[in-house]
Q: What sequence folds into this?
């Protein structure tokens, strides 16, 4: 079953407006011919509008790094789905481990955000992943299955089919340590089995599951050629145009 790959750059809290515009412009030139898979970049909120203007009409889509689950109101510092839609955002990263661990987002909050994003027509990039401690205790499978189940709680199969999952083992993020392609592929398969039991075989085999965590220009080919890895969510390497473009132009085997 051929799932269309998505290569996404999470810029995190990096790049001011001028730098973000420059990076987006360079990226366009480096990935012009790519048609076989999708590309997304997620700059900070303050850069979204400007980057939206630059990538409009290209093969690069715009993503946000977070969103609130309410429509509007007294939520100082927050941004709503409608605000993102109004400037051309298509994807929203939700439940990133940095949101979970540094900003205290729970599975319940993430579930509300996923529901709101789907209701509004944004594509949620729903992040899951275990800590090193959990992995060493042999709990990685349980942790990701639990996060998957709670994040998708109360969401119908039709709605959940709009979600993209990103498996990002926390110990691999920004550390230079990557899950081996075999390990990543196997945990993606485990996630797919959980999706099968939550929904159906067809649903599970259609779900796009990205890998994130120190993906770079050197390891991308191996990771992206694995059967169950449907793309990447890239942090550090997405900030350097040559590296990100090399990942996007990965060599198919
Ligand atoms: P790095 O690619 O820097 O490890 O970050 C991964 C990530 O957290 C993407 O969301």
A:
């Amino acid at each position: 079953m051929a799932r269309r790959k998505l290569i996404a750059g999470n810029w995190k809290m990096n790049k001011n407006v001028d730098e973000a515009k420059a990076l987006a412009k360079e990226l366009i030139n480096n990935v012009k011919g790519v048609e076989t898979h999708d590309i997304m970049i997620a700059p900070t909120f303050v850069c979204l509008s400007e980057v939206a203007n630059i990538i409009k009409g290209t093969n690069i889509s715009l993503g946000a790094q977070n969103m609130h689950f309410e429509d509007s109101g007294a939520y100082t510092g927050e941004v709503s789905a409608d605000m993102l839609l109004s400037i051309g955002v298509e994807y929203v990263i939700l439940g990133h481990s940095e949101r979970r661990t540094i900003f205290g987002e729970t599975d319940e909050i993430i579930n509300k955000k996923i529901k709101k994003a789907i209701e509004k027509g944004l594509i949620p990039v729903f992040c899951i992943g275990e800590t090193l401690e959990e992995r060493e205790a042999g709990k990685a499978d349980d942790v990701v299955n639990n996060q998957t189940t709670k994040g998708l709680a109360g969401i119908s199969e039709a709605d959940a089919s709009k979600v993209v999952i990103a498996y990002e083992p926390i110990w691999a993020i920004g550390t230079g340590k990557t899950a081996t392609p075999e390990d990543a592929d196997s945990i993606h398969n485990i996630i797919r089995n959980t999706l099968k039991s939550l929904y159906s075989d067809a649903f599970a085999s259609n779900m796009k599951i990205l890998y994130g965590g120190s993906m770079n220009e050197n390891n991308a080919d191996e990771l992206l050629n694995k059967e169950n890895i449907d793309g990447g969510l890239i942090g550090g390497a997405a900030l350097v145009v040559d590296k990100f473009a090399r990942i996007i132009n990965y060599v198919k085997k």
Remarks:
- Residues 6-248 form a domain with the TIM Barrel fold (CATH 3.20.20.70).
